[in-house]
From TrEMBL:
<dbReference type="GO" id="GO:0006487">
    <property type="term" value="P:protein N-linked glycosylation"/>
</dbReference>
<dbReference type="Pfam" id="PF05637">
    <property type="entry name" value="Glyco_transf_34"/>
</dbReference>
<keyword id="KW-0328">Glycosyltransferase</keyword>
<feature type="transmembrane region" description="Helical">
    <location>
        <begin position="31"/>
        <end position="47"/>
    </location>
</feature>
<keyword id="KW-1133">Transmembrane helix</keyword>
<dbReference type="GO" id="GO:0000136">
    <property type="term" value="C:mannan polymerase complex"/>
</dbReference>
<feature type="region of interest" description="Disordered">
    <location>
        <begin position="1"/>
        <end position="22"/>
    </location>
</feature>
<keyword id="KW-0808">Transferase</keyword>
<protein>
    <submittedName>
        <fullName>Glycosyltransferase family 34 protein</fullName>
    </submittedName>
</protein>
<dbReference type="InterPro" id="IPR008630">
    <property type="entry name" value="Glyco_trans_34"/>
</dbReference>
<keyword id="KW-0812">Transmembrane</keyword>
<dbReference type="InterPro" id="IPR029044">
    <property type="entry name" value="Nucleotide-diphossugar_trans"/>
</dbReference>
<dbReference type="GO" id="GO:0000009">
    <property type="term" value="F:alpha-1,6-mannosyltransferase activity"/>
</dbReference>
<keyword id="KW-0472">Membrane</keyword>
<comment type="similarity">
    <text>Belongs to the glycosyltransferase 34 family.</text>
</comment>
Amino acid sequence: MHLAYPPRKSSTAGKYMPRQKMPRISRNKKTAIIIGSILVFFWWLLFSGSKRTSVHPSASKGVAEHFPTGKPSVVMVTVLDTSFPKEYTDSIKQNREEYANMHGYGTLISKVGDYDLHGSPFSWSKVVAMRHAMAKYPDAKWIWYLDQDGFIMDPKTRLHDLISDKALEQAMIKDQPVVPPDSIIKTFTHLKGQEVELVLTQDKDGISVGSFAVRNGEWAKFMLDTWYDPMYRSYNFQKAEIHAMEHILQWHPTLLSKLAVIPQKLINAYQTEKDGDQFQDGDFVLRLTGCTKGDGEKSCDREGGRIAQKWRTAFKNA
C-alpha cells in the first residue's frame, strides 16, 4: 500500500493571514547584542587560531609526511630469478651484501615470485621491490635498484658520492632526448642537483632501468605507483616496464622535472659495446646484458663465474 504524500506547504503567506508586527528592540539591547557578537567573534578567533598552530600542517590531509633522516644513505635492491643456477645467484647476493656491509648500506634481496604481479611479466618485480625497500627502510636517503645481471666491480666507489647533489650537478646530461635520438621531449636544462629525485642512464635503445636510483620520499612513492599503474602493466609494451617508464617520463612533466640522466658508465656499464657503453677496468658496475640461463657461451653462469673471480679479488684488496 502506498502512503499519500503530505500536502505541500506554500512558501508564501496566505492572502488572508493577518500581518504580524516585528517586535521593537531597545537601544540598550542593540548595544548589548553588538558587544556580545564582537566578544564571541574574538573568542572564536583566539580559540581556532591556537588549534591551528598546534596541529601539523599535513594533519589536515589525514597523513603526516615522513622526512627520511638519511640512515642508511643507500639501500640496494635486487630481485633474483632462482631458475638460474644457484652458484650464480649466490654470487650476486654475496656481491651485494659485501658491498653494503663495507659502506653501511641496507639491502633488500627478494626473489621472483615473492610478489603477486596479477599476471604481469616478472620484470615488473623491480617496481614492487623498490616500494618494499622504502617501507622496510623509511629513513634511507636513496634506493638503488641493480638487476641480477649486474656486479659491483669497484668496492671503493660509494654510490652516495656518485649521486650527491654536487656530483649530480656536474654529471647530469641536460637538454638530452629522453628516448634518443629523436625524442622531442628532453631533460630539463635548469634542474639543480638538490631537485633531482630519479637518476637513470641510457643505452643505445633508450632508457635503461637495470641500474637506477630514486631519492626516498613522497615523490618516489608517487613515481613508483604511477609506473606500476595497472593500465601500463596491462598495455602490450614491447619491453614491458622499460617502455612504460619511457612513456610516463615523456607524458608526465611532474616526473620529467625531477629526472637526471647521467653517463651510463657511472653506474651501468655493459659487458659488450653493441648495446651501450662498454665496461673497462676501474668502472663501478658491470652488467652482463643478454646472458642466458643455459650452458652456452653467453650463459650467465659461465660469464658470472669468470667475473666473480675479479670482483672477489677487488673486494679482498679494497
